[in-house]
Amino acid sequence: MLRQLLLVALGGAIGSALRYLTALLLARHYTGSIPLATLAVNLVGCFLIGLLIGLCSDTSHLRLLFITGFCGGFTTFSTFTAESYSMFREGAYGLALLYIAGSVLIGLLALWLGLSLSRLLAS
């Protein structure tokens, strides 16, 4: 169990650091209104998780290091899309659409609630 945890932690640390570096690099060269760093990380993460699921399907340690750790640290959006895709592939279309819409809409609501609470606590 400790080895698995360390693999996830190592991959997550590398993924998080790379996400931060990507944001710094893009901020130097892009000043538009679209959050390009987040978009780029999410799209690259989706590509990588698809590639890694295909390449690491038989090796649990590689899955922990690269899929759970690295992709999880780099972007959780890649995991969200992989889970959504799995639901579609299994024929659970309604559940997939509910999961996607619910994640986005309830996520926005949760963000708003957290911000509202922080304002209450700050005043």
UniProtKB/TrEMBL annotation:
Catalytic activity: fluoride(in) = fluoride(out)
Superkingdom of the source species: Bacteria
Gene label: crcB
Family, similarity comment: Belongs to the fluoride channel Fluc/FEX (TC 1.A.43) family.
Compartments in which it is found: Cell membrane
Activity regulation as described: Na(+) is not transported, but it plays an essential structural role and its presence is essential for fluoride channel function.
Name of the protein this chain belongs to: Fluoride-specific ion channel FluC
Signal peptide segment: none
InterPro entries per record: FluC
Membrane topology qualifier: Multi-pass membrane protein
Annotated TM spans: 35-55, 62-80, 92-115
Binding-site positions, Na(+): 72, 75
Annotated Gene Ontology cellular component terms: plasma membrane
GO BP annotations, alphabetical order: cellular detoxification of fluoride
Function: Fluoride-specific ion channel. Important for reducing fluoride concentration in the cell, thus reducing its toxicity.
GO molecular function: fluoride channel activity; metal ion binding
Keywords: Cell inner membrane, Cell membrane, Ion channel, Ion transport, Membrane, Metal-binding, Sodium, Transmembrane, Transmembrane helix, Transport
